[in-house]
Amino acid sequence: MQDFVFQNSTKLIFGKEKEQLVGQESVVFGKKVLLHYGGGSIKKTGLYDRVVQSLLEQGIEIFELTGVQPNPRVSLVREGIALCKEKSIDLILAVGGGSVIDSAKAIAAGVKYDGDVWDFFDGKAEVTDCLPIGVVLTIPAAGSETSEGTVITNGDGWYKRSTGHPTMRPKFAILNPILTYTLPAYQTACGITDMMAHILERYFTNEKSVELTDRLCEAALRTIINNAHTVLEDPTNYDARAEIMWSGTIAHNDLLGTGRIGDWGSHDIEHEISGIYDIAHGAGLAIVFPAWMKYVYKHDLNRFAQFANRVWDVEIDLNNLEKTALKGIEKTEAFFHSIGMPVRLTEANIGEEHLEQMAKKGTERGPLGNFVKLHENDVLQILKLAL
Amino acid sequence: MQDFVFQNSTKLIFGKEKEQLVGQESVVFGKKVLLHYGGGSIKKTGLYDRVVQSLLEQGIEIFELTGVQPNPRVSLVREGIALCKEKSIDLILAVGGGSVIDSAKAIAAGVKYDGDVWDFFDGKAEVTDCLPIGVVLTIPAAGSETSEGTVITNGDGWYKRSTGHPTMRPKFAILNPILTYTLPAYQTACGITDMMAHILERYFTNEKSVELTDRLCEAALRTIINNAHTVLEDPTNYDARAEIMWSGTIAHNDLLGTGRIGDWGSHDIEHEISGIYDIAHGAGLAIVFPAWMKYVYKHDLNRFAQFANRVWDVEIDLNNLEKTALKGIEKTEAFFHSIGMPVRLTEANIGEEHLEQMAKKGTERGPLGNFVKLHENDVLQILKLAL
């Protein structure tokens, strides 16, 4: 087991109608709140009104920055930074999913920095401080509600890059599973894939003595898999929505990664795809992960066989571990397909035109991944396997 | 799933030689530290010297309060409160196991309260604030290093009572598995039983939709069971010690209890035993838990069968769930025995003299437990089953 430091201070408030507490949780940090969200969906569902009412009841002055897109853009982040500085904002309240939260995090860090915020994403500067961030989560997927990371897209060259810092962890996150009832099936499935990918990135490690976290990862994966079809077929099933929502947070709160070095190569490859194509992150991961698995599984047959056995109930064939491993990969791919995800680039209408460019750009700051180090040609081979 | 709030901010620093960071972690809270510990074992192992040196390097003034006993006493807590007030202590540093940490927590709360500290334990007052607490953990067992609770014994009538508050969570906890190499086998086994009991108390719930936390509980239980004999037979096995140590923290950091109402009847019954007999808490739990299970299992055969299957690999006999359930209980009891724990009161030289008194005292503030509510006669029957 690797040495580690683990601290996750986000206050999680989970359950029915908990968005009504957003005012009292926010006012702790001050009276000027930037309400940050995407488009009209939170207005359609009435969530916007409930949040605003709760904030106003606490005498909070609300400023708004709307229009966050999936794969959130640095241009809007820059707008948010200017607004926060001008209005002396005390707290950024992200109401939405991972894109909105990530955008809020980048704004929060940028406010405390004199240079351009993109410096954090291309390695020219490191985050040291942040405005406080609060969250009302509407999409269980990214785990950004308690993570210390953010991923932002720069339209100037379509770079999608990440950065992180402990101060970026939201101070509080409100999780009401009922808010996810209205999510379209496709978006629900993208979220399920994203949270599974967060666990898989941690699961595939070269660290040998990681039994507790292996088993915790397997527990979360099995729960997600076991509830996925239920939420797709019965979108207002509270219990299943709650399992998925809580799993999405646990998948990425860093506990499951303690003592181990995760991989993250598949995430980086996916960022190249969705940096160019504006495909949903979850859909991109459903395409990349099976291809990545097929490319690397021989590196540690035991781990892939354990995965097949403990997550997918594949019987271990001790005389043919490769067969066991491959069955696990097959089941992973079939599962993503079964929940409506594409598992090939072509299914997402992505051809081979830009594969070489993605492989080159993705590795220009060095090889990707840790389980197996992926150089430019490795990434290209994985992308070709994903065609 | 029940609604819940979850926040655990303790900074966990895990790994080899990490006690050398204690000075820099402590000085954040001030320059006056109360070093709180038990007896001479930390001096024998050299840990005391390393901690003192690290504190002195940060210019910290050290005050000492030693002599914490297993089942820590309110008398020493009162002494600590007086000392902290007199010396204007900034941080209480607990170096030891659960007893030392619990004693530190009670002192920390008492310093901020004008009345007698026992008021917190017999329900006359509630904790509202605390001095900061730091921990260097030497015994993985109680999980007190990140929990918000404390259990203190009052020699005046041998009451053992608990209280808790979020501010009681230690600010940091340093976990170096190597520090546990020198633990006697019996103490190691008591710790293993205690952490398993913390999970079992959460596991046996009447809440139906708790799949994620069920599976997380099972993951932690399997890990503990799988590493228990290794640490007993090979006490300097770093990897196994690390699995046990991290499991002990996860068992009681409240994550595994999110969305569910735990039982805690067995803990309360054990407190009556160790309030009178000064038996190790873990040993008391090894005696009470199997008896409790035998008394209540019919209340939810499905849950006990799931436990038998997922934790102990007992095949589910759908035509005889009771048989499956009983096999799980049998395996639990056999496991405790196999690691050197008593599983009967008589094995711990406790006879039937005080059973009625314990049952009466234990229930004088109301019935115990939640899975099944235990009244005086129920507790007596469980104690008799434990004979």
Question: How is this structure best described in words?
Answer:
2 copies of one chain form a homodimer. By secondary structure, chain A is of the alpha/beta class. The first copy, chain A, folds into 2 domains: 11-179, Rossmann fold (3-Layer(aba) Sandwich), CATH 3.40.50; 183-385, Dehydroquinate synthase-like, alpha domain (Up-down Bundle). In chain A, 47% of the residues lie in helices and 13% in strands. In chain A, strands 1-8-5-4-2-3 form a 6-stranded parallel sheet, sandwiched between helices. Chain A has a two-stranded antiparallel sheet with strand order 6-7. In chain A, strand 6 and strand 7 (159-164) form a beta hairpin. The longest helix of chain A is centred in the middle third of the chain and has 23 residues, at 211-233. The radius of gyration of chain A is 20 Å and the shape is globular. The model of chain A has no long low-confidence stretch (mean pLDDT 97). The A-B interface holds A 1-16, 18, 208-209, 211-212, 215-216, 218-220, 222-223, 226-227, 238-239, 242-243, 246-247, 250, 255, 258-259 and B 1-16, 18, 208-209, 211-212, 215-216, 218-220, 222-223, 226-227, 238-239, 242-243, 246-247, 250, 255, 258-259.
Are there runs of chain A of 5+ residues with pLDDT below 50, and where? none
Order of helices and strands of chain A: EHEHHEHEHEEEEHHHHHHHHH
The CATH architecture assignment of the largest domain in chain A turns out to be: Up-down Bundle
Radius of gyration of chain A: 20 Å
Mean pLDDT of chain A: 97
Helical element count of chain A?
A: 14
CATH class of the largest domain in chain A: Mainly Alpha
> Oligomeric status of the shown chains?
homodimer
> What form of chain A results from the Cα inertia axes?
globular
Give me the secondary-structure category of chain A: alpha/beta
Distance between the termini of chain A: 37 Å
Query: Can you tell me the CATH superfamily of the largest domain in chain A?
Result: Dehydroquinate synthase-like - alpha domain
Q: How big a fraction of the residues of chain A is strand?
A: 5-15%
Largest interface: A-B, 40 and 40 residues
Report the helical percentage of chain A: 40-55%
Report the strand count of chain A. 8
* CATH fold-level topology of the largest domain in chain A: Dehydroquinate synthase-like, alpha domain
Domain count of chain A, please report it. 2
User: How is the main sheet of chain A built?
Assistant: 6 strands, parallel
Order of strands across the widest beta sheet of chain A?
Answer: 1-8-5-4-2-3
